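The authors assume throughout that readers already know how a fold can be written as discrete tokens. The format is easy to grasp once an entry is in front of the reader. For illustration, here is how one protein appears when written out as sequence plus structure tokens:
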Amino acid sequence: MKFKLDTKSMVLLGLLTAIVVLFSFTPIGSIPIGPLVITLNVIPVAIAAIALGPIGGAIMGAIFGIFSFLQCFGIGIPSGMGAILAEINVPLAFIQRFVPRALDGFLAGLIFNGVAKATDVRLSCFVTGFCTALMNTAFFMLALVFLFGNTEYVQGLMKGKSVIPFIVSFVGINAVCEMIVCTIITGAVGFALYKAKLIKPITAEKASAK
């Protein structure tokens, strides 16, 4: 849980923020499929969680959440769903876009630390990438149903389905693709940075890289 905001941490957060901005304002980071998108912004969140722990992951998740909220107003790559939710209730739209991403980053840091202690850094990087994408989708959709489930818009999307079947059927291939991409890229980049000694995970001294 320790987080030291030193020069290296600030530089890494700055670089990852730049990537989030790039992904948010260009088609590079968003692949639209229906009302949802396959987003690559979970990757900087996962890398921050690996390199800087839960607090660093939460900071990057919060930055992701802010840009995700701005997309509701056409700032960056527009979000059709976000625009509708913001039209219904702006404060709830902010919560739905912001809180799941910050929580995702925080929990991803805890997951990396736990897996790194039990196994090794390589495996923990891949597991963190997978879990970050999985939690991003799960938290986003749960917040959507919890905050907007009684609205005509979401009721129309659910079509009478209960929460879990709705989430599974709605995200479908989007979530699967996002998890695969995030797992592969985060695992490869995270471990490469660790081996190059460009980042030093909090638990690195306790975990053996294999």
